[in-house]
Design goal:
mainly alpha; 5 helices; globular; single chain
């Protein structure tokens, strides 16, 4: 499987995790077992919200979300999405909107018609 398709599948899987468990702020996983955006990506990648020592795929997927958030297609760093997730005025649904936008944008890249 190519890298782009792997990242797309990870993005979709992370969206599912976030839809079920999302809502944590300032923690990959909180005491209520809710995850932040990067915790959801980690869960989808390797089954644990914590970093596992090989963060390349989760960081790439976080960068895809940041690119969708900022509108900068050259954005590669996940930090903007983490800051967005941690804002007190941002809800789980707000983050899911960015997931959905990123999935739609990336789907065009992996499934061109």
């Amino acid at each position: 499987m190519g890298l782009e398709m792997r990242d797309y599948k990870l993005l979709v899987a992370a969206r599912d995790v976030f839809a079920k468990q999302g809502g944590a702020k300032y923690a990959l996983c909180d005491e209520d077992n809710k995850v932040c955006v990067m915790g959801a990506i980690n869960m989808a990648d390797h089954g644990n919200a914590q970093w596992n020592g090989d963060e390349q795929a989760p960081m790439r997927v976080g960068g895809l979300l940041s690119a969708s958030l900022t509108g900068d297609k050259d954005e590669k760093y996940y930090y903007n999405m983490v800051v967005y997730n941690n804002r007190h005025d941002i809800t789980q649904d707000d983050v899911l909107v960015i997931f959905d936008k990123a999935i739609a944008e990336y789907e065009e890249k992996v499934n061109p018609e």
